[in-house]
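In the previous lecture we treated proteins in isolation. Real proteins rarely work alone, and many bind small molecules. This record shows how such a complex is specified: first the sequence, then the SMILES for pyridoxal-5'-phosphate.
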Amino acid sequence: MKYFENKNGILRVGNVSVLTLVKAYNTPLYVYDLEIIRKKYEALRRSVPEKIKIFYAIKANPNPNVCSFIRSLGAGAEIASSGELYIALKSGFQGKHIIYNGPGKTDEDIQYAIKSGVRTINVESLDELYRIDTIAKNEGSPIRICVRINPIQGITQVKMQTGGGSQKLGIDEEQIETVIKTALKMEWVKLQGIHVYVGSQILDHTVLLNSIENTLNIACRTAQDLGFPIKCINFGGGLGVPFNESEPEFDVEQFGKGLTQLINQASQTYDLSDTCFVLEPGRFLVSEAGVFLTKVISVKESRGQKYAILDGGINHAFLPIRMNKQYPTAIANKMNFSEKHPITLGGPLCTSMDVFTTEVDLPEAEINDIISIFNSGAYGFSASLLYFLSAPMPAEVIVQNGQHFVARRRGTKEDLLSLCEIRL
Ligand SMILES: Cc1ncc(COP(=O)(O)O)c(C=O)c1O
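The predicted 3D structure, ligand included, written as tokens:
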């Protein structure tokens, strides 16, 4: 909430009152403030060495306006599906600025990526490696690859772990020699280096630095042992954001300093002067720029517990529930109320799963109050169960310096059936 102001107790996003936004666009509504994204991007860009290239993980927020804005700041795109590749291209990213991850790429996905001239495909299994080589040959177009490694050393400090132990993601470190030797013999894949992404929502920069140190060691050791020039080392994403006042900010400045040191240190054992380094942040860039606005439809009490039922729920914002995290929450039209009471916020769906926060302290909630759920700019709209219980999709609005526009119109009942063929 540190990025938002209020005037006379009414929350403002990008210098626009939420009451103006709700009047113009109704609820449930996602609102993204581009200036916050800019601040986050610039803080990261300033802190990390120039050699580091930033590729925005568009899964965090694939709205094309958000993607295009981040592109205009100087980032490339990290994608993990053909759909995301399409969105990235439509958002103005050139193929050479797109990196393709994902453990389940089909032949069609790989063909589309090669035809689009993506910068690298990160290979996640041995069979995928063979398929990429064959498809590149059929297309008559060599393709650069990195090998995504699942390291022996993962991290235990976060809930969402994507490296270490047994994983469906990447190729186990123990198999690295076989995979790299195979890739080096191939004619149509051009091995660039390795990729490691160990987990999301990391708040302690030293945890991420430890993992990066490990990645550098793996990369340099393998390159030395197998005698290939390492052109790219990709450290993935994972930079977190605080969800409450007791959680620390990710210290991006110290992270940048640590990263410089680690790269310098690794350069003493292996020549990394021509190596490009990559970060793929998603959440860090966009989470705090987004607010989900939802209206109170009903207020009730059940056996001593107070409930506000909202017009937005698990179908529009699944991750607050899935992550079992208390997302920062406020009543946007009662920002200055000091007296607070515990209340449980639930969506409109016919399932007890559909609860945002349990017994959160808020001002007395009344019908038509606007609840704001912060940190909703990442994995909000994109990670929701948008068809669950057939409610129309929420709208997305972009706000910047007092201006606003619809970045995705509100869904309609008709949209719900637009892909169906009704025969019976
Ligand atoms: C390969 C890859 N890179 C980057 C990211 C972005 O992660 P985060 O939003 O935690 O920065 C993800 C997220 O799932 C990912 O799978």
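Summary for your notes: The chain has twelve helices and 21 strands. The longest strand covers residues 290-302.
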